[in-house]
Amino acid sequence: MAMAALRREGRRFVPMISPNSMNAARSSILSDDLAPHGARSISTQVVRNRMKSVKNIQKITKAMKMVAASKLRAIQVRAENSRGLWQPFTALLGDTPSVDVKKNVIVTISSDKGLCGGINSTSVKISKALYKLNSGPDKETKYVILGEKAKAQLVRDSKKDIDISITELQKNPLNYTQVAVLADDILKNVEYDALRIVFNKFHSVVSFVPTVATVLSPEVVEREAESGGKLGDLDSYEIEGGETKGEILQNLAEFQFSCVLFNAVLENACSEQGARMSAMDSSSRNAGEMLDRLTLTYNRTRQASITTELIEIISGASALEG
Amino acid sequence: MFRQAPRLLARATSIMRARSFSTDLPAAPTSDSSFVEAWKKVIPNIDAPKTPLSFMQPRPPTPPSIPGKLTVNFVLPYQSELAAKEVDMVIIPATTGQMGVLPGHVATIAELKPGILSVHEGNDVTKYFVSSGFAFIHANSIADVVAVEAVPIDRIDPALVQKGLADFTQKLSTASTDLEKAEAQIGVDVHSALNSALTG
């Protein structure tokens, strides 16, 4: 009779638990090993275990959010200070993302660690879209990947197009020297007419805008200057110093790439920390809600087991009186 | 401890929001329309990414008469040393020698060598030692100087300069491979420029 009561209680629980939560919790309550072997009352052990683990997860995600907030504060200052760095180049050479060149190199910047929301997927989506945009007869597009997460996603379908991939960028705090060496490495090993750097620009803690910055090779700059358009008045600039105009333009392109890459890497790092903050925040909020629902279930289970015991005792007593 | 967390975080985020980004977003965002259109044709589902043009203040056009002051932007990777400062003259250390830039200077692209950059504003002269970089002088009397490192010269220690010069001269004489020679030569160049900056 106790078992019949238990079955009735079990059936009564099922519709009370809200449908969109804890399908797993429901199945564990209805599963066979509800109680340790030999016990007679309903056990709250399973629910209690789940509550403990959810509470731990909530603590961890809250701590991760704090850590991300403090890292963000540190790196945001540096990113804002580096924002003046690419402006002179854009003022001189203009911004020509729609330039038509044969060899495109897409430099995708992403994070090494996960749990940072959707920013890496966004960067990879934009990189793949740029690849599609710039594909055509007799044009080739290659990838240079900074960061583990983009590499994992791009290696799946574009493995043959990846030229260089660099990881563990943020092992030491980011500085210009490191990025300059990296830029030098990339430029030495990759043939390019146009470099397109894809990154997430940091606007605010909740807003990260995918951005594409274009750096042209000196030959393309000369070609565009001759054909007029945005770079048309480049010829009106006198070249001071150096041997030939070509050499100066070469140095200029390399310097521009390292400056733009430095700013892009810093902005992406800020976006990563900001995205991690919001991801961990929503995660701890979800954990809190799950904990509330589990507590309700726990209380119900506990009350049901007390009721069952009482019923057993009273029915036993009344059977004795008989 | 975790009860205090929301209050601390709210304070942190409000500080961050207060320190906001009005310096970066322009009054009139512009974008490359041909790029956006080409993007929309091929990839209609995703919004086109922004480009640096939309984050920049547009530059003023060339004025018909020579303006009175030169606007200088002096930027380093770590900060913008001077941002849109109106000055009378700057002297930049181009590879061909010290070059004076006045308002109305012809548009020039100059590569810089290690040397002194001096900014003249009325009677004040501020001198910086720059490592290297580029300077762009535009026709509208705006000068952009992009350098890798710059220090005001009163922060340079003369004793260390002499020591460095001696070290690198010695390394140059004992260098065997081309790479070592080049590195030692760069060290000698920078330190002798520092030396002449301090004495000159």
UniProtKB/TrEMBL annotation, chain A:
One of its GO terms (molecular function) is proton-transporting ATP synthase activity, rotational mechanism. GO terms for biological process: proton motive force-driven ATP synthesis. Its main location: mitochondrion. It is a peripheral membrane protein. GO terms for cellular component: mitochondrial inner membrane; proton-transporting ATP synthase complex. Keywords: ATP synthesis, CF(1), Hydrogen ion transport, Ion transport, Membrane, Mitochondrion, Mitochondrion inner membrane, Transit peptide, Transport. SUPFAM superfamilies: ATP synthase (F1-ATPase), gamma subunit. It is found in: Mitochondrion inner membrane. It holds the Pfam family ATP-synt. It comes from the Eukaryota. Belongs to the ATPase gamma chain family. Mitochondrial membrane ATP synthase (F(1)F(0) ATP synthase or Complex V) produces ATP from ADP in the presence of a proton gradient across the membrane which is generated by electron transport complexes of the respiratory chain. F-type ATPases consist of two structural domains, F(1) - containing the extramembraneous catalytic core, and F(0) - containing the membrane proton channel, linked together by a central stalk and a peripheral stalk. During catalysis, ATP synthesis in the catalytic domain of F(1) is coupled via a rotary mechanism of the central stalk subunits to proton translocation. This is ATP synthase subunit gamma, mitochondrial. It comes from Nelumbo nucifera (Sacred lotus).
TrEMBL record, chain B:
GO terms for cellular component: mitochondrial inner membrane; proton-transporting ATP synthase complex. Keywords: ATP synthesis, CF(1), Hydrogen ion transport, Ion transport, Membrane, Mitochondrion, Mitochondrion inner membrane, Transit peptide, Transport. Residues 71-142 form the ATP synthase F1 complex delta/epsilon subunit N-terminal domain. It is found in: Mitochondrion inner membrane. It comes from the Eukaryota. Pfam families: ATP-synt_DE_N. GO terms for molecular function: proton-transporting ATP synthase activity, rotational mechanism. F-type ATPases have 2 components, CF(1) - the catalytic core - and CF(0) - the membrane proton channel. CF(1) has five subunits: alpha(3), beta(3), gamma(1), delta(1), epsilon(1). CF(0) has three main subunits: a, b and c. Belongs to the ATPase epsilon chain family. Mitochondrial membrane ATP synthase (F(1)F(0) ATP synthase or Complex V) produces ATP from ADP in the presence of a proton gradient across the membrane which is generated by electron transport complexes of the respiratory chain. F-type ATPases consist of two structural domains, F(1) - containing the extramembraneous catalytic core, and F(0) - containing the membrane proton channel, linked together by a central stalk and a peripheral stalk. During catalysis, ATP turnover in the catalytic domain of F(1) is coupled via a rotary mechanism of the central stalk subunits to proton translocation. This is ATP synthase subunit delta', mitochondrial. It comes from Nelumbo nucifera (Sacred lotus).
